[in-house]
Amino acid sequence: MGRSVGVSRRVLLGGVAATSAMLALPRQGSAASGTLVEVVPRRALADAAFRDADGAERRLADFAGKGLVVNLWATWCPPCVEEMPALDRLARQVRGDGIEVLALSQDRGGAEVVRAFYARLGIRHLGVWLDPRGAAGRAWGARGLPTTLIVDRAGREAARLEGITEWDAARMVARIRALVAAAA
């Protein structure tokens, strides 16, 4: 089961000790305030490994030809918890478009922690993906949680959002579809 992490717990992020409260990016207004920042020119992301629910190593290259929404999150991160239902609805909306939402949990408790969290929140469309040591997040330059990367069908980072947003809002879904399809 997931456990509450207090501000006094110290973790290592990018070689710097920080409290868990510092890892959660500050909320900027309402959930609708998040803004995707387009990456120009688009760039390939580091070949970082993460794990699937069975513990098998996976990489972004395993999803070649698909558009990706890669969300770095944790069960102990309040803004992450707030946006998970919208990410779940986004996953349902875009699956038929060849777009995969990969919610990479930074929790160290493994797949069972994520499964219990999904059950508690009614999350049904997101898979269980794990980055318990934060290696993929560091390799991709995440500065805190939540951080979301939009990866185009050529495997390049098209946009990034630090913080939360309404992922299932019509304007956001349309923007994601355009970003993953574009050959910029």
Please provide a written account of the structure:
It is a single chain. By secondary structure, the chain is α+β, with helices and mostly antiparallel strands. The protein is 27% helix and 27% strand. The radius of gyration is 15 Å and the shape is globular. The chain starts with 9 loop residues before the first strand and ends with a helix.
Terminal residue distance: 43 Å
Provide the CATH topology.
Answer: Glutaredoxin
Number of helices: 5
Strand order of the largest sheet: 3-10-9-6-7-8-4-5
Give the CATH H-level superfamily.
Answer: Glutaredoxin
Mean pLDDT equals: 85
Structurally, the number of domains stands at: 1
Whole-number radius of gyration?
Answer: 15 Å
Tally of extended strands?
Answer: 10
Shape: globular
Measured as a percent range, the helix fraction is 25-40%
Tell me the series of helices and strands, N- to C-terminal.
Answer: EEHEEEEHEHEHEEH
How many strands, which pairing sense, and closed or not: the largest β-sheet?
Answer: 8 strands, mixed
Structural class: alpha+beta
CATH class descriptor name: Alpha Beta
Low-confidence stretches: 1-23, 25-32
> What is the CATH architecture annotation?
3-Layer(aba) Sandwich
Strand-residue proportion: 25-35%
